[in-house]
Every structure is written in structure tokens, then in C-alpha cells.
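Batch manifest line 353
LIGAND: magnesium ion
JOB: complex structure
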Amino acid sequence: MNKFMRRPQKRLSFVLVLTAFLLLACSESASEYRQSLFIFGTVVDLKLRGVSNERAEEAVLTVDKAFQRMHKDWHAWKPGELSALNHGFVSGQPRPVTPFLLPLMTQSQVLFKQSEGLFNPAIGKLIALWGFHSDDRPSGPPPASEAIAELVNQAPGMDDLEIVGNQVRSRNPAVDLDFGGFAKGYALNIAIDLLREQGVDNAIVNAGGDLCVSGTHSGRPWRVGVRHPQGAGIMASIEALDGECVLTSGNYERYREHDGVRYPHIIDPRDGLPVRHIASATVIDEDGGRADAAATALTVAGPNAWFRIAKQMQLRYVMLVDEEGAVYMNPAMAKRIEFQGGEPEQLVISDPL
Ligand code: ADP
Ligand code: MG
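JOB STATUS: finished
ARTIFACT:
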């Protein structure tokens, strides 16, 4: 008799435990934790899926801590490791660099070379001359052409850096590092990695349209928007796959304005002048730093040179939009992009990369 009475109870408790487990699993996979952080002068929105709020909160705290350190130690002109190093380059003496900053330099050297110097984070002095080493929008007439020419002639480049172990020196006193065209993408990648380390495998980290993702959104790829070149909303959408980043560089966001002329913050290192021919470049890549650097380099390269530079940078998905709204891309990108409100009037599909 005892035997018969215990059995249904056992079965009942098993069913209860199973139901509770399934409910928990369902609510976990359906739940989304959202948080906004501030880094590099922009708001970064994070969405974490499939984990408890407690775990998500903790994971985001770790990311925030890393972001704060990046903000300080990768900053081009505010006190921190990079700006101290920049001051030291004038002496030509080697200085130690932390493992936190060093990879930005080594990776940038490669990207500099692949982009034929169009991505050149060593032109900090030029960027400062144009007034972009400031939190506020610069105004007034552009700098004197003599001052621009002087800096261009000194030709600072990433190949002027001599890196031996953790010791770095510059052979050229004009080198001044500014990772503004690279650090955001690099940071987004690190954020995704930090989240994964803490058991968050489904996330999106979005800095105003520049983003990296991990996993999926409830089993489907994350669908993300590509910013419109004129800054008004979204021009297309893309399904970002596990581990991918989508980075857009545009000359519509930060600029100097004088007498009705806009001078954007992306500088062509060859003549020291702001790039005006292209409105934006978008790159999808698993390496956020490379995608960011490439988007900047392709903006400089423009419609004539983008294909060669993209090939050299080993990119797989590239799109450019010029000031007239003409869209250029490689066939693999064309397969992935979905335009809002139909295809653009002028669409140029290149050869495969
Ligand atoms: P956004 O941050 O608007 O997406 P970018 O990624 O292109 O645009 O970054 C622009 C920043 O990169 C500038 O503010 C400046 O700090 C830096 N920069 C400007 N021109 C270059 C260049 N030719 N190579 C490398 N960095 C650049
Ligand atoms: Mg960039």
C-alpha cells in the first residue's frame, strides 16, 4: 500500500519540477535586459537576452568598467595613458605601453599599411588643428593652409612607430595618436567578449548605429539598421550574425561649419583636408576594430579607390553612399542588405571582393 501511495507523489513532484524548469527556461529566453552606457561621447545601448536580470546587471557593470578605462587611457587629448605617450613621442625615446593600449597600436599599424595610409591614426595633430580635439563643435574659419601643409609635409604615419616588446618610440616627432576612427569598433568587440565570458551569449552592443552582436534574438539573427548618410534615420537593414559587427563612418555627424561650408571630421592624410566627396561607408566584419578603421579608410578612398582598399583590407562586406545618394557595394553585401522603401535609384554593384 505504501508503495502505491508514494509513486504518484513522486511523479507529481517530478512534473512540478519539470514545469518550473521549463517555465524558467522560457522566461529566461524571452527576457531581455536593456541598459545604456556612455563612452567616447556617445550613448551605448546594450541588450542582453536569455539570462537573469542579476547576471545581466553584473555583466553590464564589467563592461561599463572596461569602457571607463578605455575612455581614459585611449583618449587622444585628455589626461590618460595615450595622451601621456603622445607627449613623449617628441623625445624619440622608447616608453613602456600597457597591454591595454599596445594592441591598438600593433593592429593599427597593419590597417594603416593595408589602407595605403588612408586610415592613419598618427595624424592627431591635423585632427587637432581642424578643431576636433574638443568636446564641442568647432567653429570659425578653417586653419591656415600653411599650417596644414606643414603637418602634411612632416608625414606622420603608423610606420614611424617602432614597437619592440612593450617599448614604443616614434622616429617622427610629428606622430600624435588619435584612435577616434578605430577605438569604438575595437571597444564594441571587447564588450561582446566580456559578456560572453560572463555567460551572456546573446547580446547586442550598439553605439548609435555602430554595433557588434553575439548569438541571436530568440533564435533569429539580430536585425539592425544602417544609418542614413544624411543622418536622418535608417536607410537599410542587415541581419547581423553571431560575432559580427556593423560599423558606419560618415562625414555628416561631426563637422566644423563656417560661412555655410561644412568641414567634416574625417581627414584625408594626403592633403590634410576634410573628406567631402563621400557621405558614408558601412562595413560588416567580425573584427570591430578593423571594420571601424576600414569604414574610415573607405570614406577617404571614395568611389574610385574603395574597391582596391577594401580588397587589401581583406573585407567581405562593404557599402558606400555618396553625397548624391548613389550606392556602391560588393555582391556579397548586396545579398545581405535590405533597403527601406526600395532600392536606391543609383546602385553600383562591383566585382566580388
Ligand atoms: P564616426 O566616429 O563618426 O563613426 P569614424 O569612425 O570615421 O567616424 O571616426 C572619425 C574620427 O577618426 C575623427 O574624429 C578622428 O578622430 C579620426 N580620424 C579622422 N580622419 C582619420 C583618418 N584618415 N585616419 C584615421 N583616423 C582618422
Ligand atoms: Mg571608423
